[in-house]
Design goal:
Blueprint: H1 2-22, H2 26-47, H3 56-100, H4 103-141, H5 151-168, E1 172-179, H6 182-189, H7 191-209, E2 214-217, E3 222-228, H8 232-247, E4 251-254, E5 257-259, E6 263-270, H9 277-293, E7 299-301, H10 305-312, H11 320-334, H12 336-355, H13 360-372, H14 382-385, H15 393-400, H16 402-410, H17 417-424, H18 446-461, H19 472-481, H20 489-503
Parallel strand pairs: 6-7
Antiparallel strand pairs: 1-3, 1-6, 2-3, 4-5
């Protein structure tokens, strides 16, 4: 009984798929109905002898053409309709022939049989062509290895969803998923293991959200989940659900090797947090980067830095919001990396300030300085900022000038001398070998010493054209190694402690 039920379910699903493929639009339904109506009108005309008997052959030919057209336009859906029509006609003609033995009726029966054969051939050919076209369409939008949507279709889906949301006033969530330590698994266990991790990750994501959300392979070891009509709370709970389900899996690389793999996720939402498609992707990417910096296996929501400032900024500084927006938009236009880096440095600096129990005003200045410490880089050509390989002496001297450029740009801000000092001196070294003024030890302001540690840590974790990224542990060791020379040793210890608390 259960087997019969399963068969009926499969038949129902097949019929549903046929309807979706060939009768999916209002126009096609109208066209199908028109063909069916034409066939039966011709049948009624033939039965009622409205036209002379010698016209029956022409009417029969018109019916055959209609049946073949149905198969050509609607494949198996049209074939089923045509077969049913012709079988009804054959049955009626057979009954009439048994009574009259008319040769004309025998010819009519033969024509109907040949019509069924013709429609079968047409339906098979159209079905094969349609299946081939469907396969090509699927390959065009599907990632070959993981069998989820590819990056090109990701952008197409996001464009469509944003256009829909602009009309419906809804929202879209985006989760960028990165496989932690993927390169290590590839290097240690081989590419077969890496491919297996990608496939099993895709299978899990797809099985969790089949027909509800869109799962895409976004990059080498990154996936994207598009969540139509999801609010901020739903996006976050979905990300934690992915994390929980994934943590229960052990990926099998080879028969003798299994590995515990973790995920880092960055989240954002349109239109409340991100105002455009590019912002949505960029913000989720920033959040993902921050999640990895916090020790991986983390979920992080994009935080609008301006919104945070607006909530925390004192009434004396509210007029700075517009200035900061303008300056940050300049950074973003010049170099997306610099903006994201500045936001993270600001966050780290505030963490250190809180650990040092600094006052509200000092922490606010630290936050502003972290955001704006690299604003002077807009004066430096992008070709130098992103140069692969060693800088020339002239190029390096130009790079060394960016703290001065930053301070000069901020100079018009009234009452912001402390902020300008932090920005100008964030590349000074504790041993006096830094730039631009060669200050040493406590002659360097506390804020500049904090920025120096936060800035260097984030730079070490960043993948840049001229240097490979470190892990958090490697960056901690590098900070400790250079404590007392490049960095204030007390701030290094405080920063490492607070980061390890965050990561734990």
């Amino acid at each position: 009984m259960s087997g019969l039920k399963q068969k009926l379910i499969q038949i129902r699903l097949s019929i549903k798929e046929l309807n979706s493929n060939y009768l999916g639009t209002t126009y096609k339904k109208f066209e199908f109905s028109l063909c069916v109506t034409l066939y039966w009108v011709l049948a009624i005309i033939q039965r009622q002898y409205i036209f002379p008997e010698n016209m029956n052959g022409i009417i029969a030919q018109m019916q055959s053409f209609t049946a073949i057209y149905l198969c050509f336009r609607f494949s198996y859906s049209g074939f089923f309709a045509a077969v049913i029509f012709n079988l009804i006609d054959i049955t009626m003609l057979v009954v009439l022939y048994s009574n009259t033995r008319s040769s004309n009726l025998l010819i009519g029966i033969t024509v109907k049989v040949f019509t069924i054969i013709s429609t079968s051939i047409v339906a098979i050919l159209v079905g094969k062509e349609s299946a081939h076209k469907k396969t090509l369409q699927r390959l065009a939008i599907t990632d070959e290895l993981t069998n989820v949507y590819n990056q090109r279709h990701f952008h197409s889906l996001l464009d469509k969803e944003i256009a829909r949301v602009q009309k419906s006033k809804g929202s879209i969530g985006l989760i960028l998923v990165d496989i932690d330590n993927f390169k290590t698994f590839n290097d240690v266990y081989g590419h077969d293991c890496g491919d297996n991790i990608l496939k099993e990750t895709a299978v899990l994501l797809d099985s969790l959200f089949k027909n509800k959300f869109f799962v895409c392979r976004y990059g080498g070891d990154e996936f994207a989940v598009i969540l139509p009509d999801a609010n901020i709370k739903e996006i976050e709970s979905t990300a934690h659900y992915i994390k929980e389900m994934y943590s229960q899996r052990t990926i099998h690389c080879k028969s003798e090797i299994s590995a515990k793999v973790t995920l880092s996720m960055g989240l954002s939402e349109y239109p409340n947090m991100s105002g455009s498609k590019n912002d949505l992707i960029s913000h989720a990417d920033m959040a993902l980067y921050h999640a990895k910096n916090l020790g991986k296996d983390k979920v992080h929501f994009y935080q609008d830095i301006i919104l945070q400032l607006r909530k925390s900024i004192s009434s004396d500084h509210q007029q700075l919001i517009g200035v900061f927006k303008t300056l940050l938009s300049i950074i973003s236009a010049k170099d997306k990396y610099t903006l994201a880096h500045s936001e993270r440095v600001s966050s780290y600096a505030v963490m250190i300030g809180n650990k040092l129990c600094l006052g509200f005003k000092d922490i606010s200045i630290l936050q502003y300085a972290g955001l704006l410490h690299d604003i002077g880089k807009i004066e430096i050509p992008r070709s130098i900022l992103n140069k692969v390989g060693r800088l020339t002496d002239e190029e390096f001297e130009l790079i060394r000038k960016h703290p001065v450029y930053s301070a000069n740009m901020l100079e018009p801000l009234e009452g912001m001398d402390q902020l300008i000092e932090y920005v100008r001196h964030h590349h000074e070294r504790f041993d006096g070998k830094g730039y631009p003024d060669g200050l040493a030890g406590k002659d360097i302001s506390l804020g500049a010493r904090i920025l120096c540690v936060a800035d260097s840590f984030d730079a070490m974790l960043s993948e840049r054209p001229y240097s490979r990224s470190m892990t958090a542990e490697q960056a901690f060791r590098e900070l400790e190694k250079n404590a007392g020379t490049q960095f204030d040793p007390i701030i290094v210890r405080i920063f490492i402690d607070v980061m390890k608390e965050k990561i734990a």
